[in-house]
Amino acid sequence: NRVVALIVAAGKGERAGGGVPKQFRAIAGKPIIAHAYDRLAQHPRIDGIVIVAADETQLREALGDRPLLAVAQGGATRRLSVRAGLDAIEALGGADIVLIHDAARPLVPSAVVDRLLAALEQASGAVPTLAVADTLVRKDDGTLADRDALARVQTPQAFRFADIMTSHRAWNEAAEPTDDAQMARSAGFPVALVEGDPMLDKITRPEDFALAEARLGQRLF
Ligand code: CTP
Ligand code: MG
């Protein structure tokens, strides 16, 4: 079973601000993209890593001599960036399983990868999720949404490679999807939910960098 990790790192990080895209800023002295790379590369089931970036020179500077199977050119949306990465994997001869991961989630616990790969024995895709802590209301009329029926979705998201490739090729909805599980479901493939981890929360806004650094200091995966 050939397992490839695909890290999408071609966003501009507009909400995080700071001049340089968030995935190239450092926490604990190491670029965020390098944290994500190292956490995935050390997993014994992951055979290689492909990264999608807008600027390959900037990526190589951040990663030093870490090996890559391929670097793909980013697209205008996350979906198109993932697609570029999937096409690059296919050009390398494909894979059995692909783990699609946001570069903006630097801290990837091995146990989450274990749960995703185990779930793929039964399903076509698997995603890490967390319960919602806050009360949820509808903005139009303030009525309560059923929190227990909802979950927050993280990455990495694991898929059988052939199925996610099919899902991307079939996607024809007007709205841009925010993750790949939506696309797999839309194409009719079953996606399992596994327990995620707060460590995997995405760096989105300026205050999230310090939070990720604190989490990194608190726990050894
Ligand atoms: N991403 C990408 N290509 C895009 C847009 C996003 O590869 N055209 C990647 C980002 O680099 C990030 C992940 O998708 O790792 C999740 O996206 P998000 O958190 O929205 O990052 P950005 O789009 O960079 O941030 P923002 O939306 O605040 O500009
Ligand atoms: Mg974005």
From TrEMBL:
It catalyses: 2-C-methyl-D-erythritol 4-phosphate + CTP + H(+) = 4-CDP-2-C-methyl-D-erythritol + diphosphate; 4-CDP-2-C-methyl-D-erythritol 2-phosphate = 2-C-methyl-D-erythritol 2,4-cyclic diphosphate + CMP. Its EC number is 2.7.7.60, 4.6.1.12. Its cofactor is a divalent metal cation. Belongs to the IspD/TarI cytidylyltransferase family. IspD subfamily. Keywords: Isoprene biosynthesis, Lyase, Metal-binding, Multifunctional enzyme, Nucleotidyltransferase, Transferase. This is Bifunctional enzyme IspD/IspF. The record marks R15, K22 as: Transition state stabilizer. It comes from the Bacteria. GO terms for molecular function: 2-C-methyl-D-erythritol 2,4-cyclodiphosphate synthase activity; 2-C-methyl-D-erythritol 4-phosphate cytidylyltransferase activity. Coiled coil: none annotated. Bifunctional enzyme that catalyzes the formation of 4-diphosphocytidyl-2-C-methyl-D-erythritol from CTP and 2-C-methyl-D-erythritol 4-phosphate (MEP) (IspD), and catalyzes the conversion of 4-diphosphocytidyl-2-C-methyl-D-erythritol 2-phosphate (CDP-ME2P) to 2-C-methyl-D-erythritol 2,4-cyclodiphosphate (ME-CPP) with a corresponding release of cytidine 5-monophosphate (CMP) (IspF). Residues 1-221 are annotated as: 2-C-methyl-D-erythritol 4-phosphate cytidylyltransferase. The gene is ispDF. Pathway: Isoprenoid biosynthesis; isopentenyl diphosphate biosynthesis via DXP pathway; isopentenyl diphosphate from 1-deoxy-D-xylulose 5-phosphate: step 4/6; Isoprenoid biosynthesis; isopentenyl diphosphate biosynthesis via DXP pathway; isopentenyl diphosphate from 1-deoxy-D-xylulose 5-phosphate: step 2/6.
